[in-house]
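ping. complex inputs:
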Amino acid sequence: MKIIAIGRNYAAHAKELENPVPENPVIFLKPDTALLKDNRDFYIPAFSNDVHYEIEIVIRICKEGKHVQPKFASTYYDAIGLGIDFTARDIQTQHKQKGLPWELAKAFDQSAPISTLYPKEKYADLHDINFSLYKNQALVQEGNTKDMLFSFEAIITFVSKYITLRKGDLIYTGTPSGVGSIAIGDHLEGYIADTKLLDFHIK
Ligand code: MG
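pong. complex structure:
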């Protein structure tokens, strides 16, 4: 499986990092070795002094898709959960300045914590899902899928023009504003509405 991640999918987050609001989805990949499951501890890697949390809604692809048409896109994902797109912001900033790819900042081991995924039928309106992240019991990020620049369906349609989607692939659909640094000892808790799905510690 592969992890596809969307950058700058919430206008307020694009603005906070002084990036333009994109005309097309900005995408990057993480390998399967980036997954961190079961609320295991996250260990800050030695190569970064500024790892940021980015809370994101994650969708799971349920069948192979190539050139998916917009009207069928909703049938290509079957489950929803919560993930964090950990980012070595110091490395990303250096690479952006040089016009280099982001992989070292985004694709490192355990950079993609993932919650339990639930059937999408659990949610009354997929385009109105509230989600939030707390660091040490303080609210740091809050988002709603209605504020995405590119919907789940638009992402599937766009990505599948270039990259075949396979059953089991995950799409991290972008983070709202409020991203920030983590430090050893921090406690992160992520919610969809009032349900806590992520609950782990930084080591
Ligand atoms: Mg992200």
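Residues 152-162 form the longest helix (11 residues).
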